[in-house]
Every structure is written in structure tokens, then in C-alpha cells.
Amino acid sequence: MPQQKLTILIISFNGWRYLDSCLNSILASGSHFFEIIVIDNASVDGTPEKLRNKYPFIRLILNPSNVGHTRAVNQGCRLADGDRILLLDADTELRADAIKQMSMLLDEDPGISMAAPRILNSDGTIQESARNFPSALNGIFGRQSVLTRLFPNNPFSSRYLAKYNYGKQIPYQVEHISAACMMFSKSLIETVGEWDEGYHSYWVDADWCKRLQEAGKTIYCVPSAVIIHHEQISRFLRKSPVRIIKFHTGAYRFYRLHYTKGRWDPRSLAAGILLSGRLLVLLAINVFKKSPGSHMDPLSQRKPEDD
Question: Whole-prediction pTM value?
């Protein structure tokens, strides 16, 4: 089988201090025959200039404004020359053969539509990025919810986070993976469509995975492919209110589109009421959290794995 060209796509927004390490890890991976596209959403931290100086071979696309993560991903996928696309968050670092391991799985089994690595937190613990689709109860048993932290082995969180897979060392099928790192054939976009730009950022990866599932496609996690995701989230620090609002509006859109018959379905109305209540509670709590101070969250435009 001839080697397929890979496009590595990264969306950047004021994230140079992460992006530099990400690009270094790609170049050190030993993989070849790829192009790198960086779509920059109007960064003001000097990212474009630094990219041009240090990585002149990268295809750098500069958006005049921050169009959001979702639109930038669609933009990059249209520009990709590769047969396959590896979508990466800027705050990731790849272990040496991560790209190779994911590529090998897709080469060996054409029935697998998308591959994802095992993602680790900065401290080396597993990041629950390869999981099942949420149920209604995961509104209170989310990945970072208080109840999940207090009762980590409760059945609702365990099922959602697919904790039974953590010890596996061979590739295994999952329902939903994080867009922090996913590898897929470019032709998959023609089959199931682009990302839904009705989502600014949050939940769009879950939506795309759901549409893949509905089209009969399969998604696998490859434990031997490992990346570090320096997810800049602390439950003790104040978040941008806009970020909290976008998370909840994304959750509502995902539920309404995939679990109800439309906006006026009683289930949709109930979800809107419950999510609005949750949103108001979290906004109120957020006021009393410690300010992150001068630390800028460069990835605030997208963190679908925030809950």
C-alpha cells in the first residue's frame, strides 16, 4: 500500500508557549511525508511572527479575526493536501511514535474510520478523552463535576468515561474522542459532512463523532500512541463567563440535535431548563473563585473536554 500523505492541522490562538513545544514534538517524532497547517485566529502574542521565523516550512493561514475553533477546523480541512488529517490541539505533545501507531491501525483495518491516541495529563495520569456519549445524568456526573470527584467510581461517571478501558494495551472501540487529537481520512468529511458551525467550540467533537456513529463508522483508541495534553483547567480558578456559557449552549445543541425531535420536543425544553439552571449556578460559583491573574488562557476558544 503506498504511503498516504498526512496533513497535521493545528488551530492557534495566543498559544505560542504551547504551540512551540507541540511542533517540536511533531518534528522529533520520526514521521515523514506530512505537511503542517496552522490556522491562526488573530493571535496578538506574536505567534505568526515566531512561526514564520522558526518554522518557515509550515503553511500558515492568518484569519483577520477569531472565527472560533470550529470554523477554523473546517477551513483547514478544506486546505489540506493530505489523504489523511491529524487534528491536534496546540497544547499537546506527541510521544515518539504516536503518529506511526495511529497510521498503522488505519492502514491495517480499513473498517476503522478514525483513530485517537491515549491522552495523558501533564502529570502522567490518564485524561478521560476516549469515552462514551453522555446520558442526561452526566450533567451532574461530568468529567470534572463535584460528584464525580467525590465518588469517582460511581456507575454513571464510570460508564461515561469508559474507565473499564484504562488498562487495555490493544486498540479498542469507543464512541466519542476528544478533538485534542484525532486522525481520519479526508474522505470522511465527504461522507458525514464538515463540523457543525452551529457550535462555536464546545461539544462539536462529540457531535461529529455522533454523526460518524449514525453513518455506521467506527472510532478506535490506540493505547500505544501516547500524547500529553497540557489542559489548562483548574476547578479552583475563575473561568471566563463566556466560556461557561458556550459550554452549556453547546451541550444543549448536542442534546437537542441527537436525542430529541426538535426545539419544541418536551425533552428539549426540559434540557434547556436544566442546563440553564446549571449554567446560572456555575456562573454564581465562578464569581467567588480565585482569579487566574495575568495568566491568559490561550485555548479558551475551545475546551470541549472541560466537563
Answer: 0.88
Distance CA 70, CA 101 (A): 26
Q: Are 284 and 173 contained in the same domain? A: no
Residues 116 and 252 in one domain: no
- CA within 13 Å, CB half, 289: 17
- Domain membership of residue 184 as a residue range: 6-137+163-229
245 and 114 in a single domain? The answer is: no
Does residue 84 share a domain with residue 13? yes
Q: How many domains does the chain have?
A: 2
Angle at which helices 47-54 and 16-27 cross, to 10°: 20
Question: Do residues 174 and 221 touch, judged by C-beta distance below 8 A?
Answer: yes
Q: Is 200 helix (H, G, I), strand (E, B) or coil?
A: coil
- Tens digit of pLDDT per residue, the chain (307 long)? 456 799 999 999 999 999 999 999 999 987 667 899 999 999 999 999 999 999 999 999 999 999 999 999 999 999 999 999 999 999 999 998 999 999 999 999 999 999 999 999 999 999 888 888 887 655 554 555 555 565 567 766 667 777 778 889 999 999 999 999 999 999 999 999 999 999 988 999 999 999 999 999 999 999 999 999 997 666 667 888 998 999 999 999 999 999 999 999 999 999 899 989 989 998 999 898 887 754 444 444 444 344 4
Q: 55 and 168 in one domain?
A: yes
The answer as to whether 273 is a domain residue is: yes
